[in-house]
Amino acid sequence: MFPAGPARAPVTPGTPPALPCGELTAEGGPPLSRALQPDEELVELDAEAVRTWCARAFDALGREREEIDAINVYPVADGDTGTNLYLTAEAAHRAVEAVFAASGPDAAEAVRAMAHGALLGARGNSGTILSQLLRGMATVLADGCDGDHLARALAEAARATRQAVARPVEGTILTVAGAAAEACAAGGTLVEVARGAHEGPRPP
Questions:
Q1: pLDDT tens, position by position, 41-95
Q2: What is the DSSP secondary-structure string of 24-62?
Q3: Left if phi > 0, otherwise alpha if psi is -120 to 50, otherwise beta: which for 79?
Q4: 61 Cβ contact list (under 8 Å, min separation 6)
Q5: pLDDT by residue (tens digit) across 126-180?
Q6: What does each C-alpha distance from 102 to 46, 49, 63, 86, 138 come to in angstroms?
Q7: Single pTM value for the model
Q8: Rounded CA gap, 94 and 65, in Å?
Q9: pLDDT interval class at 203 (50, 70, 90)
C-alpha cells in the first residue's frame, strides 16, 4: 500500500478516525501485523496494515458521509457523494474481510481484494472513481509494497483515473489524488511517502 499477523477486533462506531497515512509506528499508532518497538517504522505494508487502513477508511466515511453529502455540488448537486463513497468503501472492506476469512492473504492479494470489492460495489461517479484509484494502486503494489512502490502506485492511480474520466474537472477527488501523488513523487521510506501523500493535498 504482506505476511498475515494476529487477528484484530472489528471496527465499531467510536473507533478512532481513519489511520493517518504517516502514523505507521508503534508509538501511539494502531495495531499493525506484529509488535513494533517504539519509533520502529513499518518498512513495507503488509496485509494486516491494508486491512486496518481499509476498515478505518470505511469507519471514517461512515462518520463524515453527511458532511460530504452536504458539499456535493459536482457534477450534480444531488447530495449523495459521501453516501456513495461510504457504500463503495463498505464493499471494499467486506471483500478484504472475505479474503482474510478464506486464507492468509499476502499484500498483493489484500490490495487486489480491496480494489475488486470497490469495483463491484461502486456507487455513483464518486464510488466509480474511488474504485479506479484503488485499481490503479493495486497494479503497482502487486510488485512490491515499500515506499517507492507506494509512490508509484499513487502516481499510477491518479494518472489512470484522470484518463478514465471523460471531462476531468479540478477541485474534485481527481485534484486531491494528483496532489497526493505529486507530494511524494520523489519516493522514500514507506512512512515518508505516506506522510507526503497525506499532507500534500492539504491547503497551506
A1: 788 999 999 999 999 999 999 999 999 888 876 666 778 889 999 999 999 999 9
A2: -BSTTS---SS-PPTTPBPSS--HHHHHHHHHHHHHHHH
A3: left
A4: 18, 68, 82, 85, 86, 89
A5: 999 999 999 999 999 999 999 999 999 999 999 999 998 888 888 888 999 999 9
A6: 17, 18, 29, 24, 20
A7: 0.76
A8: 18
A9: confident
Which three cell numbers, joined as nine digits, stand for 146? 515499500
Measured distance CA(133)–CA(119) in Å, rounded: 10
Rounded CA-CA distance 141/120 in Å is: 20
Count CA atoms within 13 Å of residue 166 on its CB side. Answer: 2
Q: What is the 3-state secondary structure (H, E, C) of 74-87?
A: CCCCCCCHHHHHHH
Residue 52 has, within 13 A of its CA and on its CB side, a CA count of 27
